[in-house]
Automatic annotation (TrEMBL), chain A:
GO cellular component: nucleus
Protein family according to the UniProt entry: Belongs to the MEIG1 family.
Domain of life: Eukaryota
Role according to the record: Essential for spermiogenesis.
Pfam families according to UniProt: Meiosis_expr
Full protein name: Meiosis expressed gene 1 protein homolog isoform X3
TrEMBL record, chain B:
Pfam families per the UniProt record, alphabetical: ParcG (PF10274)
Protein name: Parkin coregulated gene protein isoform X1
Entries under PANTHER family matching the protein: PARKIN COREGULATED GENE PROTEIN, PARKIN COREGULATED GENE PROTEIN PARK2 COREGULATED
Amino acid sequence: MAGSDVKPKSISRAKKWSEEIENLYRFQQAGYRDEIEYKQVKQVSMVDRWPETGYVKKLQRRDNTFYYYNKQRECDDKEVHNVKIYAY
Amino acid sequence: MVAEKETLSLNKCPAKLPTRTKLLAQQPLPVHQPHSLVSEGFTVKAMMKNSVVRGPPSAGAFKERPTKPTAFRKFYERGDFPIALEHDSKGNKIAWKVEIEKLDYHHYLPLFFDGLCEMTFPYEFFARQGIHDMLEHGGNKILPVIPQLIIPIKNALNLRNRQVICVTLKVLQHLVVSAEMVGEALVPYYRQLLPILNIFKNKNVNSGDGIDYSQQKRENIGDLIQETLEAFERYGGEDAFINIKRRIASLSSSERKQESELNLRLYGQ
């Protein structure tokens, strides 16, 4: 087990789409805050990504089922404001 | 407007029923018309002078065929598929209980393709989404399974259901780009897949200058067929065009058209 879990200090909402927001959207779809929490919970060092675009490809949820994501953008503009950005 | 015979008594006294119609001088005498017989074609009765041959019955090329229960439905209800339905903000999503890379494609992919015949929720959603995910992540596992996919695809197209055909065509477009050599591997099976597309190829709505929303939503069958055939030609290798042309005579090559347009622009020939 890794050291103590790092908790975020503040939270804000995304305003505009970017590649980082796209990846955050994918993590939050799977039930995690962001990549940091995913790595803490699942004890993995690397996350599966699409080599062409760098977006997250596959995530394992807390119930151990797998979510697969598309190579292209999945987060619509109308979903962007639902994406939470955590600051540590 | 129907021309009516003049009846003097009717105009002057509408309450009175006319006993006899008076004919005007120029009107021809009514000729006794023989009754026309309606008969079927290629019979002796049809050869008579006063017989009218009834046209041939409709062949039913566009008539939808009924669906049969599929193996996909049976396996899904038994819980054999490693998938679960999740609801997210965009609608529905599929969660896999097992990693797709570890799945036996020879067993599962033909089963999912069998589900293309389904038209009801959740079967059609699972089939469509499952195929999409498996093709995205299959890599070189897809190519050896191609021969087993032909019969399910043919069955789906043969239903002649608009919705099923649209989904199947989009799946075919995804299939040819999913992995290397898949387009070329499909060429020998064109004779089984393309004839049904020939029937629907010209099913484009002539709405004049109106807006065809089905085109925007990618549900216009004529356009989808054209796109699919272009994808076949692009990814099918050298023999693809001639094989397609054998089945669909009215097709013109999109690649050669582009090439000749380019030549025209560059060299003015």
